[in-house]
Amino acid sequence: MDRRTLLALLGVGAVGGLAGCGGPESQPSPTGTPTGTMTQAETTTADEQPTDEQAGDGRMDPGLVTVTVDESVDATVRRIENDVAGSPLTLLAAVDHAENAASVDRSLPPTRLLLVGNPDVGTPLMQAARSVAIDLPQKLLVWDDGGQTKVTYNDPQYLARRHGIEGQTQRLNRIGSVLNDLATGTGRFGGTEGTGPTGTPTDTPSPGQ
Q1: Which of 64, 41, 68 is nearest to 142 (CA)?
Q2: Fewest beta carbons within 10 Å, which of 67, 100, 129, 146?
Q3: Cross-strand pairs, 93
Q4: How high is the mean pLDDT of the chain?
């Protein structure tokens, strides 16, 4: 008896019966969503199912938070750099992937990666689970998506689940809030009353390094 006949007798479709074998388990949706008022940006969470066209942008990953901003990629990068400079954060590195692509005669839409952090905030996370160091310092990806500027960052709550970090909920919430404020230019970094010259209060919590 051949394989197809056996599957038919068992009532299992040839495709459907094999598709689930050995496949990856589904990832949980993140519970840590951005806080603050979205006055300048539209937030896209991983709970929204991406289309086939979106799949190549990595938005199927439930650990990512993506916001849409009104500025250009260059202007957004400058804004984030200025906000970081006026805060307890440190800009540890900046990578221009489009420029790197051009250096090998390849093209890529504007794609900029900023690494920001603060050892005083990130070290307790690494003390709780050393493996989280693979995801630190925190990153902000500023990229062009068909003429729209997007900013993507890792959801801190998802990183906690990924690395089994417990007892750091308040710290993770504060990190997520700061990342959202940096990405959108709102909240602590929006120049609101009671903030410093760059719109950043002196007690702003920092994303972990």
Answers
A1: 68
A2: 146
A3: 115
A4: 76
The structure tokens listed for 128 are: 């709780």
Residue 68 has pLDDT above 90, yes or no: yes
Copy the structure tokens of residue 112.
């900029």
pLDDT at 62 (0 to 100): 82
Identify the pLDDT of residue 42: 52
DSSP assignment of 128-169 equals H-GGGGGG-SEEEEEEEETTEEEEEEE-HHHHHHHHT--S-H
Using CB atoms within 10 Å of the CB of residue 163, give its burial: 0 to 12 exposed, 13 to 18 middle, 19+ buried.
Answer: middle
Q: What is the dihedral of CA 76, 113, 84, 119, to 10 degrees?
A: 160
Q: How high is the pLDDT of residue 105?
A: 98
Helix extents (H) in 50-154: 52-55, 73-85, 97-102, 119-128
Q: What is the Cα–Cα distance from 168 to 162, expressed in whole angstroms?
A: 14
